[in-house]
Design a protein that fits this description.
By secondary structure, the chain is an all-alpha fold. The chain contains eleven helices and two strands, in the order αβαβααααααααα. The protein has a two-stranded antiparallel ribbon with strand order 1-2.
Amino acid sequence: MIWSIDRSTEDAARCHPLPITASKPARQWPGHPTKASTWEDRVIQPAIWPAPPLLSSPTQILDFFQKELYTQAVAMVVSWGGMARRSKDIYRLRSQEHIQRIDKAIRLSAGSTRNSGSIADAWTVLTGKGESELGWSPVMASKTLHFLCRSLGFEDDPPIPIDNKVIRQIVWPRFRDSVPRGQRPGSWDGGNFAAYCRYMTAVLTWAGQRGWTTTQMENTIFDEYLPRNP
């Protein structure tokens, strides 16, 4: 894919790689069982669901995206990513008008990404505050774009999810503090695309050092830095 590389982040990431103990990439979170009835008011009707049991897994999400069942794909991203508590921010009042707006936004995002190889326009569509934009958080947008891009065939360096609990609160400070003052790159916080590209620059650099995809790198970072209960 085409990425806007932040050179100060690239230099810092190359010289100060994030400590990772694993020699092989971790598996992506496999998801969990859910019920179609839970999501009926958040998808375009009539909805087409697979035979139960329904699993909000990467495989199922990619299948929905590839079949252009976009609102169902988004519903599974919400389930897979533990975003149900943010449902009001994602779906507003769950009116069919807004569900149609989500479908249109994802279609526009798919088209622009397919044609350009970049998510720059899609990021604006998903996170922008305009009338036809969704106003989603970077967390929700990045999780959606991760699977959307993979469904379009971008498997080597797709956008990867960013979250608050692991990436912003643990990994970013760990990386930042490993870099000498005066050489530290810009933050990964904030909702703008430049901040997300700085995060992607670091992951692209570390993935390249190991010969991994960005998905494999993010899976492993998340697995190693996720706090475990004692």
